[in-house]
Write a structure and sequence with these properties.
This protein is about 35% helix and about 40% strand. The chain is α+β, with helices and mostly antiparallel strands. The chain has one domain: Alpha-Beta Plaits (2-Layer Sandwich), CATH 3.30.70. It has a four-stranded antiparallel sheet. The protein is globular, with a radius of gyration of 13 Å.
């Protein structure tokens, strides 16, 4: 399996939180499907000092780069322009 960590920051404009909340149900539905298919390892929101959601971290895995790219281009937070700054790095989960 190819594993990836996605570190994403939301926009900082006045509509950023509204975009996140609008896309959130579809994002969670997609994450549940990933989990059911052994594609979701971990994930969650990053927070500012006041506890406001300002980004996300996800660790996912796929059999092929093409499968990852298909998921990535259809991810609701990407399609909904929630994430404005996105880093994708190859990742390897420690086996302890």
């Amino acid at each position: 399996m190819l594993q990836y960590v996605i570190i994403a920051k939301d926009g900082e404009d006045d509509e950023a939180l509204e975009r996140r909340m609008t896309a959130r149900p579809a994002h969670f539905a997609g994450a549940k499907i990933l989990k059911q298919n052994n594609r979701f390892i971990a994930g969650g929101a990053t927070l500012d000092a006041e506890g406001k959601m300002i980004g996300s971290v996800m660790i996912v895995q796929f059999e092929t780069e093409a499968e990852f790219r298909h998921w990535y281009t259809n991810e609701p937070y990407i399609k909904g322009h929630v994430w404005k700054s996105i880093e994708v790095k190859p990742f390897r989960l420690a086996e302890v």
